[in-house]
Amino acid sequence: MAKQSTWFISIPKRWPLIVLVLFTLSTAIVFFIRASIGTCDTDNRIHLITQVGEVNNPLSFMKSKLVLLVSHELSLSGGPLLLMELAFLLRSVGTEVVWITNQKPTETDEVIYSLERRMLDRGVQVFFAKGQKAIDTALKADLVVLNTAVAGKWLDAVLKENVPHVLPKVLWWIHEMRGHYFKKEYVKHLPFVAGAMIDSHTTAEYWKNRTQERLGIKMPETYVVHLGNSKELMEVAENNVAKRVLREHVRESLGVRQEDLLFAIINSVSRGKGQDLFLRAFRESLQLIREKKLQMPSMHAVVVGSDMNAQTKFENELRSFVVEKNIKEHVHFVNKTLNVAPYLASIDVLVQNSQARGECFGRITIEAMAFQLPVLGTAAGGTREIVVNGTTGLLHPVGKEGVTPLAKNIVKLATQVERRLTLGKNGYERVKERFLECHMSHRIALVLKEVLQQAKEPHIM
Q1: What are the C-alpha distances in Å from 75 to residues 61, 268, 359, 456?
Q2: Could you tell me which of 356, 386, 354, 382 has the C-alpha nearest to residue 369?
Q3: What distance in Å separates the CA atoms of residue 351 and residue 280, rounded to the nearest whole number?
Q4: Best label site of 118, 263, 311, 423, fewest CB within 10 Å?
Q5: pLDDT for 254-313, tens place per residue?
Q6: Are residues 127 and 176 in the same domain?
Q7: CA 376 to chain centre
Q8: How far is CA 102 from CA 41, 94, 160, in A?
Q9: Which residues of 45-61 are buried (b: 16+ CB within 10 A; e: fewer)?
Q10: Are residues 424 and 444 in the same domain?
Q11: Residue 459: its pLDDT value, please?
Q12: What is the CATH number of the domain that holds 422?
């Protein structure tokens, strides 16, 4: 069986330096939302937010305002973490922020406790989702952010007759691309909120069409907001000393040499993220290399995002495949973690293999590009809005049809060193142009200003 790895294996001589590096990363453990908004489509009611001049903090107008954040859950998945990042950004300018988690397990959960503790330490108030305190906060808040489509269930379940009073000040932040989220019980109030914020143009268009065709409802004013990289992550990505230390440590913990080639997929392990097809492509690439008798360093696949408690059946399938195909010496499984910087510092290529409609956006993609890594991605969803095929990475089809093209792309980047490095450098430049925290700060501020303005205007249900 492929070995379970975690980068927290200690190396006594280097541990003080590792601790120092980790200390500088402490605020990067939870990633920050950013935005880069593209073309304008007034017919589709998808707005362009243009670049504005530099200010000290464009969110400063949110000082002393009360914002209620409603999350469907609190976990290590993308949606809740993004909302928590927004909470911290608002707190940094003096906003009063209240957090509500609509769905919480009855038993104590260490992850939830840790994340709530982190928010409390940063001044975010955490309320019970269904109490009178939550209703009172919603009524007097300046802004209510519903995170993900599923959070819509909270409105009727808790606010009840107060729903019409709250809808005009709701910003609905949507990250989903899967069809089962299109249920009227979730999104029936969507047309009446002040605005919707979606992570990519592909997802926005999908929601616009799907809500009209399947549910017979119209989207509200919709803002396409690309994510971006925090200053903390960029500091590590641009620090050659930190990267070298992390690279050496992670590779040693995985049992691979410094000269070996590492291809990594960094997502929560699930069928929709395509780890199974990635491993099939990786095996096929090893076969191609043997058939062509290519002379090159040993290749390894790293699957970061393992959680045997969450996806036991699928994880067992992955590990069985590795054993059956006799590639266990080349494949490494790493537990799910918030701190991906060490792995980005240690690998050579990121594989973004999300299936079906692809990623809504794909934060890990721009994080990898910040580390000057080329990206091998599926030609679907938000990945197409990030990766420039042939310039910052190489794209392949979704599904089984994409296995062989991905295998060939793996071989290309394994054997063409200059091309691999050039793609990585181009990706870094693209991040600097479009996907930084400063881009987010300006654009998210303009979205919030428009939504707050909408909240002041008369609203007819």
Answers
A1: 30, 12, 18, 33
A2: 386
A3: 13
A4: 118
A5: 999 999 999 999 998 999 999 999 999 999 999 999 999 998 999 999 999 988 777 789
A6: yes
A7: 17
A8: 34, 25, 15
A9: bbbebeeeeeeeebbee
A10: no
A11: 57
A12: 3.40.50.2000
CA separation for the pair 396, 353 (Å, rounded): 9
The reply to whether 417 falls in a domain is: yes
Say whether both 179 and 253 belong to one domain.
no
User: The domain containing residue 371 runs over which residues?
Assistant: 3-26+230-435
The answer on 256 and 215 residing in a single domain is: no
| Tally of residues, the chain | 461
d(CA 353, CA 263): 12
Of 413, 411, 379, the residue nearest 395 (C-alpha)? 379
Q: Which two tokens stand for residue 379?
A: 């030609």
Q: Tokens 């994510």 identify what position? A: 227
Q: 78-91 and 437-456 are packed helices; what angle lies between their axes, rounded to 10 degrees?
A: 80
Tally the domains of the chain: 2
3-state SS class at 71: strand
In a domain, 127, yes or no: yes
Q: Sign of the CA dihedral 281, 286, 290, 294?
A: positive
